[in-house]
Amino acid sequence: LPYRSQNFVSMQRCLFEGIDTENVLLLDVDTFIFKPIDYVFTKYKDSDIYACPMVAFLKDKDSSRVDKTEIMFSYLIENKLHKKVISPMNSGVVLFRKGLIKKYGSCVLKYCNELMYKKHPMSDMMFAVRSDGRSREEFSFNLFALENNISTDFFDETDIAISEFNPNLSIFHTGSNTYS
Q1: Under a CB-based contact definition with an 8 Å cutoff, are residues 175 and 55 in contact?
Q2: Backbone phi, then psi, for 26, in 5-degree steps?
Q3: Contact (Cβ atoms closer than 8 angstroms) between residue 96 and residue 45
Q4: What is the pLDDT of residues 157-174, one digit of tens each?
Q5: Model pTM score
Q6: Burial of 125 by CB count in 10 Å (0-12 exposed, 13-18 middle, 19+ buried)?
Q7: Residue 106 pLDDT class (50, 70, 90 cuts)
Q8: Which residues pair with 96 in a beta bridge?
Q9: pLDDT band at residue 10, thresholds of 50, 70 and 90?
Q10: Where are the beta strands (DSSP E) in 87-127?
Q11: Across the beta sheet with 89-96, what order do the strands follow?
Q12: What's the confidence (pLDDT) of residue 164?
């Protein structure tokens, strides 16, 4: 294979290059749907991509708590380095608009390889977040949005969530360690 696949296989994301659909809701395998979700396509229409926030699970010896993460992203536009502090998106539940899933599919492998083989300015940060490189898909997804100047926003956490389950949710992404 043309990439390192230990712990996680991003290759299936390359298949998105063949999707010619304007609006696509991507759901990872560790995602549950509890009620009709048709409304997602009409409610979330002002940005080009919607997702849940990427969260960090910070544990102390007495309990676990979930915090939203902010990371300084270094990214390239026309070979010029830019830096921006963002709350990154999780790539497990994503609404792609304007046919962007196709464009994402055409470059996700490039991003994953550049990150994994330390050929991108964000490689060191990615390995600092997870020493095994398993966060490369999330980093790739966020770099795709930043480097292509794509408008993004987060889903309303009362509709779609990753960090805390609520019985009124439509969609819950567990963020499990499915590939460990």
Answers
A1: yes
A2: -90, 130
A3: no
A4: 999 998 788 899 999 998
A5: 0.86
A6: middle
A7: very high
A8: 24, 49
A9: low
A10: 89-96
A11: 24-27, 89-96, 49-53, 152-154
A12: 80
Structure-token pair, residue 96: 């792609």
Give the Cα separation of 75 and 73 in Å (integer).
6
Which residue type is seen at 49?
A: I
Q: Counting every residue, how long is the chain?
A: 180
> Apex CA 138: angle with CA 134 and CA 140, to 5°?
100
pLDDT of residue 64: 47
Using H for helix, E for strand and C for coil, what is the string for 116-142? Answer: HCCCCCCHHHHHHHCCCCCCHHHHHHH
Buried b (16+ CB within 10 A) or exposed e, 129-163: beeebbbbbbbbbbbbbbbeebebebbeeebbbbb
Distance CA 30, CA 100 (A): 23
List the end-to-end C-alpha distance of the chain, in Å, as a whole number.
19
User: Dihedral sign, CA of 8, 9, 12, 13?
Assistant: positive
What pLDDT shows up at residue 144? 96
pLDDT of residue 63: 43
